[in-house]
Amino acid sequence: MALMTGKEYKESLNDGREVYINGERVKNIAEHPAFQPIIETKARMYDMNHEARYAEACTTKLEDGETICRAFKLPKTKEDLTAIRTYVDTVLDDLGGVVYRVGDETIGEMWSLYDAQDRLNEIDPTYAENIKNHVDRIARLDLFHVSANTDPKGDRSKLFEGKAAGTLLHVVEENDKGIVVRGAKFETAAAYAHQAFVKPTISNWTDQSMTPYACGFIADMGAPGLKHICRTPLSTGKNPVDYPLSTRFDEIDTLLVFDDVLIPWENVLFHGNLESAQYIRKTVHRYSAFNYVLRLQRRADFLLGTALLNVEQTGLTKLPAVQEKISQLICYRETINAHLTAAVADAQKSAGGLMMPNQSLLYTGRLYALTNFPKMAHLCRELVGGQLAVTPDSATIADPQIKEYIDKYYTLDGGWTPEKRTKLLYFARDLLNSAYGGHQITFELFAQAPPFAQYMAAFNHFDLNPVRDMVTKAAHLETDTKADFALQK
């Protein structure tokens, strides 16, 4: 057991998994053009753990001395949470882009299960030991672990009736080897991951007829009967110079079809108990949301840096109206940063003995970042200007037949050559206006939970008692109102 290399990771994907994309079954996923860019990105993350310059930020040791990826160390102190933040920043700095489902975010859901061991033991002690074993196994084997949450959307008023009931993942059989499951889930990165924590998204467990759907387990992504049906990449046929983000960081989404897949008993985390399923659903993002919001901050950095460089090259930074817009982007970025910083500073010990980011600050920070991103992206568009929509592609810019015109109309003082200017515009276009840019906004809105569920999380984790008591006291509501009025007379 040791840290995996990028080469070993790519080789590990050739396990016979059944992957379909663009009308074909994939033979070698690591070399397939639809998957190769994002697999190379993940391979780079594996290789970073072996480089001396990244050793402190990207690796750590277990109590027995075994070296593991920093992302997989259970956070037991505030310093551990700060180290996770440093790890994510270091990885994103090296990659030069933003990726979400690459292992460090989704491991947090397993930590939520680890936290819940005592409560799950009270409800049903059968599977608690499996949780502890898998948290340890992921770290020691350096596995690419993802999550499978989202159900195929049918008639939601008939979730457990007719055809809709057949699409929801459920247990169809138990035997001495494990449970057999049927149904489907959507998940990002599943086709090139090692395993996934599969669980229900249902929040209202009302009666025992729902019991077959109340299951959570670890699924091997190469398991017999598991089919990966993937969406087409957003970067197909695109030049990496013209689309520097989408050609490297498009994380492929997958419809995971469980066609009577056997889940060994040692991989079952909860099963056949409505209370367990409901409890897990309420706590699942208490750690993963931290790594998620770190990515949202990086996206805010990209907006700010893109806008700033564009107004600097065109000499507009001294205009008060431009400074006002840049300041709005600064405030957006720093508010996300403040939520993250405060969530660590005011972190709390969990029931399982882990250091948990302050839940109210974390969930409100997530909402602030997501709900304000479209507005901030529009500000960035305004500052970049109309050239975002009209700039020729790199092949045209490099055409020697028109070089004199390109040099004349695309050269600016301060070392802004046509090549440099258009590179910035291509980055801005991919960030803001491309299919990839639009996909990211939708992905981010729903990736951890739909908006209403995120608002519920914020509501449920804010302590309303102090403000209620404050106003009760300030408005003298604790005294007899009639008596107060009588005194005035």
Summary tags:
FAD, Butyryl-CoA Dehydrogenase, subunit A, domain 2, 489 residues, alpha+beta, six-stranded mixed beta sheet, Butyryl-CoA Dehydrogenase, subunit A, domain 3, AcylCo_DH-like_C, 14% strand, AcylCoA_DH/oxidase_NM_dom_sf, globular, four-stranded mixed beta sheet, 2 domains, oxidoreductase activity, acting on the CH-CH group of donors
Care to describe what's here?
Residues 5-269 form the HpaB/PvcC/4-BUDH N-terminal domain. Pfam families: HpaB, HpaB_N. One of its GO terms (molecular function) is oxidoreductase activity, acting on the CH-CH group of donors. With 489 residues, this protein is an alpha+beta fold. The chain folds into two domains: 6-283, Butyryl-CoA Dehydrogenase, subunit A, domain 2 (Beta Barrel), CATH 2.40.110; 288-468, Butyryl-CoA Dehydrogenase, subunit A, domain 3, CATH 1.20.140. 49% of the residues lie in helices and 14% in strands. The chain is built from 21 helices and 14 strands. It has helices at residues 6-12, 36-48, 55-58, 78-95, 107-115, 117-123, 128-141, 162-167, 246-249, 274-283, 288-313, 320-345, 359-384, 387-390, 394-397, 403-410, 418-432, 435-446, 451-461, 465-474, 481-488, and strands spanning 18-21, 24-25, 59-61, 67-69, 145-148, 170-174, 178-188, 195-198, 215-220, 226-230, 253-264, 268-271, 348-349, 355-356. A six-stranded mixed beta sheet has the order 2-1-10-11-7-6, with no helix packed on it. Helix 13 (359-384) crosses helix 19 (451-461). The mean pLDDT is 93.
